[in-house]
Amino acid sequence: MSALNLILPIAKTHLLSKLKQTFIAALGVTFGIASYITLVSFMTGLNNMLDDLILNQTPHIHIYNEIEPSKTQPVERFDLYKNNFNVIHSIKPKLSQKKIHNAFPVIDYLKRDSNVLGALPQVNAQIFYMAGSIELGGNLSGINPLDEVKFFHFNDYVIKGSAQALNTTDNGILLGVGLADKMSLDLGDRLQVSTIHGDVFSLKIVGIYQSGVADIDNIQSYANLKTVQRILGETQNYVTDIKVKLRDIDQALPMSKTIEKQFNLTAVDLNTANAQFETGTTIRNLITYAVSITLLIVAGFGIYNILNMFIYEKMNDIAILKATGFSGSDVQLIFMCQAMIIGIVGGVLGLLIGYILTNIINQIPFNTEALPTVKTYPINFNYWFYVIGITFALVSTFMAGYLPSQKAKKIDPIKIIRGQ
Fold this sequence. Notes:
The chain has 420 residues and is α+β, with helices and mostly antiparallel strands. The protein has two domains: 196 residues, no CATH class; 183 residues, no CATH class. It contains 15 helices and ten strands. It has a six-stranded mixed beta barrel with strand order 2-3-8-5-7-6. β2 and β3 form a beta hairpin. The two termini are 34 Å apart. 32% of the residues are buried.
């Protein structure tokens, strides 16, 4: 302890005697860490916002009845042609129902799984929107509004009205913003919808919805599950789709395969449905961390160069220290202390500046028509970024100080004194 009490003042004196160089070295660490915190917080915040744009609207597992050609064609049912090589052209899809058989027992079974957060029924129907002389084709989805808000953050995409209004209004509809603009409709207006069979129903607009994807907003609308069942003339057990939200998204693929085998339904997991989206997210994260780490490494090289110069300028001091009884290890510890002081001061200032900059960015207005519910630039305030930043600052300054201090440790004081 007594040796350390003597070494620290010497390290402090060396740093203060070359205050400009010390300041520049600490500044390199400060801006390296501040840049890392700002960049990684902003980029991961942006990535999370883009991820949520997809994840909040896409179920982890989508269950439905796939329309596809029959695997066994009629000609293959005849014994005469069963063992022949049959070539069949222009195969048409088999006549099958969109309805999921025993949908609600299937939903109850899924909800009993500990990994399932929620299993939501949905009815999808192709309809025509009619307002005056305007008639547009689109899709109407019947949902349980409260469950959609709970599990899929549905209200985040409602720019007028509320999703809860669908729960209290039997003839209510929540219209896509693209449809509302094309037909000059707003909250409280009446809209007629027609099924593909020609049945016409009048609905009241209780909300305007904007997903951020124009192609969806131009055709999509939502109503209460019972309302869509009534429009289609179906019973209350009519369900065309089941949306499953899991606790562990990594279990989506194996669970979807199990559901397909168990219930003879098509089950598509999130990653399969959005393969290109996952690839884009991975590449963005890779670029973010690569650039961030590069900034920290550059700061480390700056410290190394400055400490190297310290040694050459402090040759006489090193010789005097060794001549007065300091060992090579003591001299090395002096320079290591200098490096760690620079790392700690620069790292803490870097974290502070990074936190201030990210808070400033988080207050900057982010105005875009595609995402009206996002008011400011997204920032990810993950405390692990700060832990990684200060750890890297200490590790990089330690490594940057170790090599020059090894050189100082081996200096022969007699050669330096004779050279004087």
